[in-house]
Amino acid sequence: MAAVTEAWETLKHAIEAYTGLSAATFFTVLALATAFYYAVSGLFGAPAAPPPRKRELEEMEPLPPPVQIGEVTEEELRVYDGTDPKKPLLMAIKGQIYDVSQSRMFYGPGGPYALFAGKDASRALAKMSFEEKDLTGDISGLGPFELEALQDWEYKFMSKYVKVGTIKKTIPVVDESTADASESQAAAQTTEANSSHSNVAPDTSEQHKEVDAEESTKE
């Protein structure tokens, strides 16, 4: 106890000698300075980070595994264009459908390639076109460089995304009654043409008779 008292007396003398203040005044000023420092730090400190936005939260959530949809028509594929967040984001190349949900920032609503989603955009990708008329799977008439570009896109999709289906090829339906009528009309035209040829053919039997009569007279 004597040692503690001696140390305190030594500290008091040191404070008075170096600061000119009494020990009580010195510790009061020190407490006020500390409080002032923390008050100023609270006013000018870095602001708290804003809460993450809804879209960022959605992107952070794990994506569900791709679901196979099988063979669908182009019209059925349109519902997977990203407007319904409960449905996967799909896109087709050369009739093959891929799940591009992991690249929603590119192919989803508001993305730079959003107009390709829910469609077979083979022609548009080959030509790097954003025109409505090129948003089709018809690649007829494309040049070699365009076909090569399309092949590069296909390789990229095959390596990055999961194939989940194919586009059903539509075959035009022909009305059987119309087809039968067309066949009957064609057959009638063929019969009429043959009949016409037989009517205009010359009767050679009378000519042969006249030739034989002339030869007999000369003899």
What value does the Rg take, in angstroms? Answer: 47 Å
Helix/strand class: alpha+beta
Shape: rod-shaped
Return the string of H and E elements.
Answer: HHHEHEEHHHEHH
Question: What is the terminal-to-terminal distance?
Answer: 179 Å
Strand content: 5-15%
Low-confidence stretches: none
Widest beta sheet: strand line-up: 1-4-3-2
Number of strands: 4
Helical run tally:
9
Main location: membrane
Subcellular location: Cell membrane
Transmembrane segments: 20-46
GO molecular function: steroid binding
Task: Describe the overall structure.
- The structure is a single chain.
- With 219 residues, this protein is an alpha+beta fold.
- It has helices at 2-19, 23-44, 54-60, 74-77, 104-107, 122-127, 144-160, 176-200, 204-218; strands at residues 70-72, 90-93, 96-99, 162-167.
- A 4-stranded mixed beta sheet has the order 1-4-3-2.
- Strand 2 and strand 3 (96-99) form a beta hairpin.
- The longest helix is centred in the C-terminal third of the chain and has 25 residues, at 176-200.
